[in-house]
Give the backbone structure.
Amino acid sequence: MAQASNYNLDQKFDFTAAVKKVIFFLGGLGALLLLIGIIAAAMGGHHEAGEEAGHAFHWSKRLFANLWINNVYFTGIAIIGVFFFAIQYAAQAGWSTALLRIMISFGNWLPIAAVLMLATFFIASHDLFHWTHSYIFDITDPQYDRIIDGKGNFFYWPMEKGSFPIFYILRMVLFFGFWIFFFNKLKNLSFEEDIKGGTSYWYTTRKWSAIFLVFFAVSSSVSAWDWVLSIDTHWFSTLFGWYVFASWFVAGLSAITLVTIFLKDQGYLEMVNQNHIHDLGKFVFAFSIFWTYIWFSQFLLIYYANIPEESVYFLERLSSDVYGPYIFVNIVLNFVLPFLVLMTRDAKRHNIFLKLVCTLIIFGHWVDFFLMVQPGTLGHNGGLGLMELGMLLVYGAAFAFVALSNLAKKPLIPKNHPMLEESYHHHI
Amino acid sequence: MERDKHFILGIFDDEDILLSAVREVRAAGVKIHEVFSPYPVHGLDEELGYTRSRLPIAAFLFGLLGTTLALTMQFYMMKFDWPMIIGGKDHAAFPDFIPVTFELTVLLAAFGMVGVFMISSNLKPWGQPRIFDLRSTDDKHVMAIDIASNGSVDLEQIKSALKASGATEVNSKSFE
């Protein structure tokens, strides 16, 4: 009789030299583009520098903004891997059992992301975050800003405003610390289950998943305010946390789908069939619409009410020569394309459509973060150029390397998972 | 077209037996008119050789109708029929139209889909649904075989094929 144990459940992913070569090539290409971009910016930047009286624009600022975009973006994809893993347990889902190892492997990026993000913050906080300048909080200074002063405690408590943002750093360390803790907990439980078996691991994992999900519900929102929303310090949006989460989630789901299809193409995951891939496609489709819903909800209310302190955010983007077109790229790549292409059942069951759409979505949501970060940090000096593409490729290649090399360490299928048989017989 | 009137019914207790029975009866060259079951039986569609439902196409077309209707209505009202300036926006302010467009699209797609389903499965108000065996709403699976469309197959052969494949009863049913 057909059953999951007919397959080689101890199969491991062989991270071959050929695959590594492709990743290194992409990373190298990215580094090259980045270098050309930096050189071009360093040579040509002087013409524009005169525009802003006294404030010369330095290319390093653009480099830091790029680092920040990708720090936030890939942290999101990594934590979404852990989040989606936890969701499967909390929802007691059986269909996804064969895909659990792929999801959890993304979390290996988290420690690296934490170091990168802290380092970038300490090096470039003045270039990225307007609120880090101490003169804003000095009432005698002509550049004193009453609004930011009112929000200052969110960053500086319990220290004096304008000094060291201890509360902000504490939150960053705390979120990464707990995320990494939960990731390790869930990962180790899953690996232990491989050796010892039994249903107790499933119950323990479900318990930890539930605790993680509660923590993530709060921390994902607050981290979005901290890392992205605080760039536009004056501006505010109550659903921004969800907006960032939705963007992360779609990108993460696309990445999970792409890795699954990649492994299938390489001949792994024999017990995964088109039904599982169809379900992943549904997730990408549904949450693309969810992202659009959130994006549009934010936009419509601000557009309709037209209150200056709110609508400035969209004016900065829509009426800008630099960013205006990318708003439409964002909507087309993240809504129109997945909506129209993935609507039919056949498209979700054929890998070629999913490969195309998921790749474009990963780029599309990067554009979303580009639009969140750059206008507030670089203004009209920003743009999508070689530096941006290069940095995206470097981060993408590094992320893929970390996730795949950790995926290769353990068997691809949690062979003692109590719902493995259900996953094998998944049929829609 | 004249509707089929005379049927042989195979009554089944168990869904696994039903599934294998469908396979065996079809293999014996008998065309199955329809299978009625109290709950969805997984894999029955495939065993019956049904192609995928075309209902999603109807849903898409009705949705498209809803989108068109909503946009036309709002553009006509806001731009031509009774132009008003609301919140300093242009008369035909496209983003404002999206919530209504979305709602009408969903509404028409849903209603259209339900309507098409009702009509195509003969549950329309003016239709007379044929009850083959009331127990198919309770605990029995009912396989209906149309005698007219199985003209070449002997009646006794159909009945014995049903018995052999595990039917607990084999009945006949005729409609007016």
User: Anything to note?
Assistant: Chain B touches chain A at residues 42-43, 52, 56, 60, 87-89, 95-96, 98-99 (CB under 8 Å). Chain B has five helices and four strands. The longest helix of chain B spans residues 55-81. The first strand of chain B starts at residue 6 and ends at 12.
